[in-house]
């Protein structure tokens, strides 16, 4: 005879070993960000508009779209980065983490998906 506890334990075991088709994405490490994002051209869409961002190896950051541009500096913050924009519509400090979605596709902690290419 099966007890409620045995059924719960077997159910938990099945859930743990049966693939669900989606893996939980992990935040990228500082080393991964350094090799896959820093020094690359980032192409994103923000509110339907194409935006290009450059996190340069010298610690500067710039962004440009059809109707605005911005510039400032960035620094590592644990396994993410913080940027301090001195000009543009998003002036001030913003900190982000990143997830690698495969290939040259990524997503930041604000939910913006983007691709990278060589600068």
Mean pLDDT: 83
Cα gyration radius (Å) = 20 Å
Annotated CATH topology: Lipocalin
* Strand proportion: over 45%
Q: What's a quick, concise take on this entry?
A:
The protein is of the alpha+beta class. The protein is 18% helix and 46% strand. The chain is built from 2 helices and 9 strands.
How would you describe what is shown here?
Helices cover 18% and strands 46% of the residues. By secondary structure, the chain is α+β, with helices and mostly antiparallel strands. It has a single domain (23-118), classed as Lipocalin (Beta Barrel), CATH 2.40.128. Strands 6-5-4-3-2-1-9-8-7 form a 9-stranded antiparallel beta sheet, with helices on one face. Mean pLDDT is 83; it is low at 4-23.
Question: What are the SSEs and their pairings?
Answer:
Elements: H1 4-17, H2 30-36, E1 40-46, E2 49-55, E3 60-65, E4 69-76, E5 81-87, E6 92-96, E7 98-102, E8 105-108, E9 113-118
Antiparallel strand pairs: 1-2, 1-9, 2-3, 3-4, 4-5, 5-6, 7-8, 8-9
Key phrases:
about 120 residues; Lipocalin; 9-stranded antiparallel sheet
